[in-house]
Structure formats: structure tokens, C-alpha cells
Amino acid sequence: MSHPEWKFIGKNLKRVEDPRFLRGKARYIDDIKLPGMLHAAVLRSPYGHARIKSIDISRALQVPGVITVLTGEDCKQRMNPCMNFGPTTVAQYPLAVDKVRYWGEAVAAVVAESRYAAEDGVEAIEVEYEPLPVVVDPFLAMEPGAPLVHEAHGSNIVHEQTFEFGDVSQCFAEADIVVRDKLRWGRSSGMPLETTGAIGNPTPNGGLEIYANSMNFTYFMWLIASALKLPSNKLTVIPVNAGGSFGSKFTAHKVPTLAGFLALATGRPVKYVEDRLDHMANSDHHGSDRYYEVELALKKDGTMTGLRIDCVDDYGAYLQFGVGTHGNALSQVVGPYRIKHVSYRLRAVLTNKCQQGAYRGFGAEVNNWVLERMVDKAARTLGMLPEELRRRNFIQPHEFPYKIPTGNIYDSGNYEAVLNKAIELADLPYWREEQKRARAEGRYIGIGITTAQERSVFSSTEFWMWFDKPAFPVTSSPESATISIDPAGNFHLKLHSQAMWGNSPETVATMVLAEQFGIDPHQVNVTYADSAHALPSTGPGGSRFTVMVSGAVVGASKMLKDKLFRIAAHLLEARPEDVELVDGRVQVKGAPQRSKTLAELAAVAHFFALSLPPGMESGLEASHTYDHPYTTLPSDDRKDLGVFYPFMGHACHIAVIELDVKTGQHKFLKYVAVHDAGTVVNPRTLAGHVTGGATQGLGTALYEEYVYDENGQLKTSTFMDYLIPTAMEVPEFEIGHVETPSPFTEYGIKGGGEGGRMLTPAVMSAAIDDALAQFGVRVTALPVTPAHITRMVREGQG
Amino acid sequence: MNNKRVIEVTVNGTRYERLVEPRLTLADFLREELHLTGTHLGCEHGVCGACTVLVNGRSVRSCLMFAVQAHGASVETVEGLSNGEQLHPIQEAFWENHGLQCGFCTPAMILRAKEMLTCCDRPLTRDEVREGISGILCRCTGYQNIVTSILAAQEKLKREVGD
């Protein structure tokens, strides 16, 4: 919201990060070279499940340039298991110990003088495997006698739980209509163009530095130190710009842990950067892989009353984040609707696949798709227009803050305003008429409408509220900022978590700083603290960064202004409460001729201690750690999960497509996306998250899937068969913003970073359904490829 | 690998003579030998296009070309575009139109844009630009602002010629 007195917030400022990236001077992880640095490559498992009988490294060690080869046995002897928020019975090392649990799992690492030599060494390793029965179907994995992925756990079911909020049985007994579906969400991932990489660098004091593009919780860095058996104060993690993440670098620990391990083993700097195959087969962060049975209860007039969700989630072979991706879904499980009764059953299952982690939406985007599928089915059953059924059930502006059945609070919103704006931008009546005309000509136009939530700013409770006795019930998720003004009056801003990874941390933070001091954002020097110097910070994730860093910058600005005012007042012989900051000067209210510039005050603060107020320290620096402004604990019985994701964004997407029912191909006629992320700091960068996220959502909906065959072989392990959208598959997006400020955050900002991916799978499914309405078929599984569409048409005709 | 070859390559106007293994890719030659790390590697199997550079004015995927194949050629990388801090008009257009987010595909997009804008002396349409960049993957932007940036660059370059 472009507030009349705001100079920067709400403006389309050019990003302050960009010049170095435009000139090819980004300094990504693979661009960094340390003196004497070695390079690592890994040998990956060719089996989905196999015992490692022996590893012969002798030939590899003779390859010119090879320094050493390390295996899981070395990890077992010298390390503790990696960081893990799941059960300790599901232990993980960066190199497989005793057996491999999925195709592509790392078995050995070769360290050599060059990456070429390291790859030569990998070729020369001989491993004898004893293949074990493979389990890739989570339903088979749950059966008694199924091959165990982790014998120590005793079962492939790592978590089974049913939450019930309200009186679900009675609600369904009293329902006029219940719509049911079985739904399937296929496995995809963030797939940044840059993979995960790290450099381990032993330091002369017996410590270790790790340069990493993948670690964001500065207050959890000791978990890597613990895996490497180092005292926490001997490890320094240095944040490096990342070439995209989308969740895939959200505390991706295996790569930095391995690089650190190899550096300690060789005593030299070691770089390990995944190649694309490593990333696709062995990353920390494949996305959700879910099977649903869902029921939505309604009254005859269209009032939605209850929701039953039964989900089986195929987590793959490890469980880094526990079942946090379902905690996330529960924060907005009822979407924008007044549904009062909810049950949610989860079975989290281990199989012989790469592990799951974070992907833009963190599980909530899947729930959006599931809920919107059911709403669309209900609209069709009731013979209502999709937008009318939604309107009838929207939480209304006067009802906020609104507590949903799970206990989470929605802070604010105006869902009807977003829907109306989207309908207007899309010119929906025109397309409904056009659709009729086209159908008369035998053409198939489909219109999809989706209204869904984008919760922002997580509380850590979502990671452990599933467990009755959580091992580590952390409640902190802070963000910090340090502002200093140097003796020449120039501003420095230090950020304290993951470096820029494609979001705009420097732009949004300097815009807020500029708003506070009236300076030019492009003149601020931005740096990132390493973990030895960083204050507690959580980094980007869960659409939290803009909200949280703004809180941190505002807090530090207030402290710094307070000091400047006290110095100025002392020099101007006024009281601190009688001075104000105007256009780069601190002046006496009502007497602007009595003033000092920021540069003059900075010089005094740094060099003229005797001119400072008595007792004041020299220098001009302030730091603020901003804790989550609104969270509460879950109740002990988990009937109320507490407030854990309260800043509730909302969006409406409308897609109009024309489908060729013979080929299954579509073309876009219109795509409108209207988002409400509270006060918008920079409309153009937020729109970038909408278009980029929507494009990833198109991939999830139509193109991308990790396909494992019955032997656990990954069949889509290159960009030749894992298809991410090119410029040819993406429509021209029309973007709108509605701004309902949050009452709880600085400037009323809400998060919006996960953007379009929260809605695009749902709106594409709806548009395809609508185009195929006369065939009586519906999209129930993603991705829905042209081959699926032609099959649906055949079955519908049959 | 002792069968190294001497190659002579001109990169961004500077002539280099180096002894290289025949299997060294052009991308690794630029990055490791010449320390020009603005050329990025996204897949190393010729699909993502992040490693695109101009060889004798034509865009190539430098992960699919060996350095020895560039013997005698003139190579242009993103580092050759800006003059110190002074951005090239295509770079300026990307900045002004938010044509990048993480920046990893940006050097490739900019070089491909330069090739397209050099080859074509009539105004390009949005669809033509989309097709022109369809060999380079971007995971951040949804391409929309890249298309806008390239068309804006075309305007800038036309004005420069007009001046």
C-alpha cells in the first residue's frame, strides 16, 4: 500500500543486488577458489536397495591426481549421524553406511587435484553389492513383512496420527451432500539451476570453515559441528549466494557436512558441488509425494461444514524434517473458507527413494490443491458456479483475526476483494461467452478459478507438534539485522542468515532502512555475517524473510536513531525528544536551522568522545533480533495447535485455456493472478515471485515428476526427461495486488515468496476439468500430461 | 592424460595461449583456466543453456564444446559486455525490468539476447523472443520479465544507433 508519507515502501525500486549478477560477478559457490583447494566427486548407488559387501578403492587411489577415497565406513568411525528432526532410528550419514537405501545415494567420495581427476577416481572404485528387495510403493511398504528401509526403526511407517478438530462425525452425519475423491500428488522438486555446493576449509586453530549455499538457520549451525564431532565454536559457516533454491537449499545439510568431513580428513580445502545427476538423485529436498482420500461435507445451500483428509505421504528413505510439511498444511487446512470441523490422518512412510525436504509451499501448496479439487467437485455437484460457491463460504473481513479449527489464527484478509479484482482483470463474462461459442464450433475452452491461502512466517512448532513427547520442542525462529554508520556517514547493513538466493533480501532490507533514515537504498553496503559472528536468524523459508527482516531493521533503526538523537540533542543543547530526523539531518523541531547532518553526527560518534553525552559509548552501530511477533504453544492434547502461521496471504488465479482433445495439448488464452500479501514492499519483485512460482506450479501440474520404476531406478534423472517449463510453455501473466495490511507486523507486511506455486496446480486442474466438462472426467492426479488428458477423453467417451 | 594440446583463443578481445587436455570443456576452460566464472554450469548435459557463450558471434553451449574446438575462435562471455561498472544496454534493460532473480541463467540470457538483437534488424515480437530464449532454462522468473527486458534492450540499442 503506497502510504502517502512512505518514500520507498510500495515503490518499484530497481534491485540493489543486481549489478554484480548482471556483470557475471555473482560469486556463487563454484566460483570460489581457495589456495591448495581439492575437488570431490561421489560414487552413487546403482541399486534401489542393497547391502554394501565390499568397496575396493585401490585402483582409484592409483588414478593420477587422486588424493584419497572415503566411504561410509569412514563416516561411521569418525562422525556422528547428520542433523535430523525425525526419529533417531532413521539415522543418516552423507555417505551410505552398510547399505544403500535408494538409487543415487552416495557410497564413496573421491578427493582429487581436479574435478576431472575425481571423476576418474569414481570410475575406478569397485563395489560389491548384495541386492535387497526394493519397496517403492508406500502402500506395499506399510504391509507386514515388507522390506524394511531402516531395520532399526522396525517398520516403514515412521509416523501415524489422526488429528480431530471439532465434531467431525456429527458434521458428516448431518451433511446434505458429501463429495469424495482419491487424489494423487506426484513428486517434483525446486530444481534450482545452480545445484547445492560447499567448500570445507580447515583453519590453523584446529577449526573448520564451510562455505555453503545451503544453510540458513544460523542458530542451528552447531548441528553440523555435532555431526563432525567438532566443538560448536570451531565451526564457521560462511554464507554464499545461491543460484536459486525454492526450498531445495533450505538447510540442505548433506553437501556442507560432506565437504567439511572431506576437508578434515585431508587437512586441505575441499570443494564439493553436486552435478545435476547428484542433485536430482541425491538431494535433501524432493517435494511431497502424496496419496489422499478426501471428503468434503456441505449443506444443500452450498455451505461447507466439514473436511476429512486421509493422507499417505511417501517420504523416501530418510526423514530430515520429520513430518513438518503436514504441520504446515494444517496452518491453512480449511483455506479461505468457514469450515468448522476437520479431521486429518497422516501415515508417513519410508520407501527406497531419495528423501523429501522443502519445496516452495512446504506441503501447504498440496493441501491447497486438494481442497480446491474438492470445492470444484462440490460446485459441479451442486450446479453452482465455482466463484459463487467460494463466495458463499469465504471468511468475511469483519471476522478477523479468525481462528480456524486447528487453532491457527488468520490475521486479516479480504477474499471477496481479491476474487472480484481477478474476475475483472480476466474479463470472466467475456470468456464464459467465448467458451459457449467455441463449444458450438467443437472447440474446448476451459476456465479455472482458484482461491487459496499463502500462510507466511512459520513458527518452529510446526516441526514437532505432531509428537506427544517431542525431542526438541524449539519455539524460536528469529531474524536479525545490524546497522552501522561509518565515520564518513555511510550506511552498512549486515544480514545474518543465508545469503541472497534469488529472493531480494538486500532490496527489501535496504528499502526499509531507507524508509527509516531517508537515504538511498543503492548507497547502503550490505554484507552477510558468517556463523561465528551471526546473531540468531532463520533465513528465507515459509515466506517469512521480508516480514522478519523488516522487523529486525526497524528495531535496529529505532536504537540507532535514539543514539543519534541523543548526540544531536547534546550538541544542539536541546532535549532528545525535541529533535527529529528530516532529509538526512537531525534538527530541532520548529527550528530547522539548528541541525546536524548524519555525517557530522557520525564523525562525532566515532572520533569525538568528549563531545558525546556523558557515559555514552563511541561508535554508531545497532543490532536487533526480531522474534516471531505472534505465536503460541500447542495444547498438550493437540486439540489446539496454537498460533503458528498467522500472517495469512491470499490469492485468486484464473486461467483460460483451449484444449486440443485429440493431442492433449493446451494453449493459454488468459492467466490472471491477484495476490494479497499485506503491504507490498516492492510490487515488481513480489510480482516476480508470483510469475516464477506460477511457472513452477505449471511444472508440477503438467510436466515434472520423479518417476521410480519397480526396482527403484529413477527414470527421470536428467533435464531430457524431467521437464521444467521453458519460455514456450509459460503464458503472459497479468498480475494484480490487493493489500490488506497485517495488524501484527511492521508496516503491515505479509510474506509472498512462495507465490504462484500455491495456486497454479489447482487452477490448471480446474481449467482442464472445465474444458473436458462434457466428457464427465476430472483431474485427480498430477502431473497431468497430454497423454493423461487424451486417456481421460477416451475414458469419458467410452 | 598427457596428450595436451596448445590452443589459441581470443576471449573478450584478449588473446590467450594455453596448454589443455583435449577433454577439457570450453566452459571449464573459461572458468578454471581464465577465471571467467560468469559462465555458469547448470546441467552439463546440454539442456539448461546456463553455459551459453558466443563463439564467433554465435551462441553455443560451452559444456558441450571442448576447449580445443575453440582453437582460433573468438569467444565472448558476459564479462566482456560491461565496461567496468558501466553496464551494457542489455544489462541495463534487465536491471530496469527485473529480468533476473537468482542471476544464474542471466549471463546466458544476456548473451543470447545480444545474438538475437544483432541478427535481427526489425523489431522482435514477444513470441519471437520467447522462442529465441527457449533453449535456456530459467527457474525463477517465469520468463515474462526476461522477454520484456530483451524488448526494452532492443529499444535502447536502437536509440543508441539513432544517436
Find the biggest chain interface.
A-B, 58 and 60 residues
Q: So what's the oligomer here?
A: heterodimer
CATH homologous superfamily descriptor of the largest domain in chain B: Beta-grasp domain
Structural class of chain A: alpha+beta
CATH topology of the largest domain in chain B: Ubiquitin-like (UB roll)
Write down the Rg of chain B.
16 Å
Helix content of chain A: 25-40%
Estimated structural class of chain B: alpha+beta
**Percent strand of chain A:** 15-25%
- Named CATH architecture of the largest domain in chain A: 2-Layer Sandwich
Strand order of the largest sheet of chain A: 3-5-1-12-9-10-11
Helix tally of chain A?
Answer: 20
User: Uncertain regions of chain A: pLDDT < 50 for 5+ in a row?
Assistant: none
Say how many strands of chain B there are.
5
Our count of domains of chain A comes out at: 3
**Helix percentage range of chain B:** 25-40%
Largest sheet of chain A: 7 strands, mixed
Q: Based on DSSP secondary structure assignment, what is the total number of beta strands of chain A? A: 29
Total number of domains of chain B: 2
- Using only C-alpha atoms, the radius of gyration of chain A works out to 27 Å
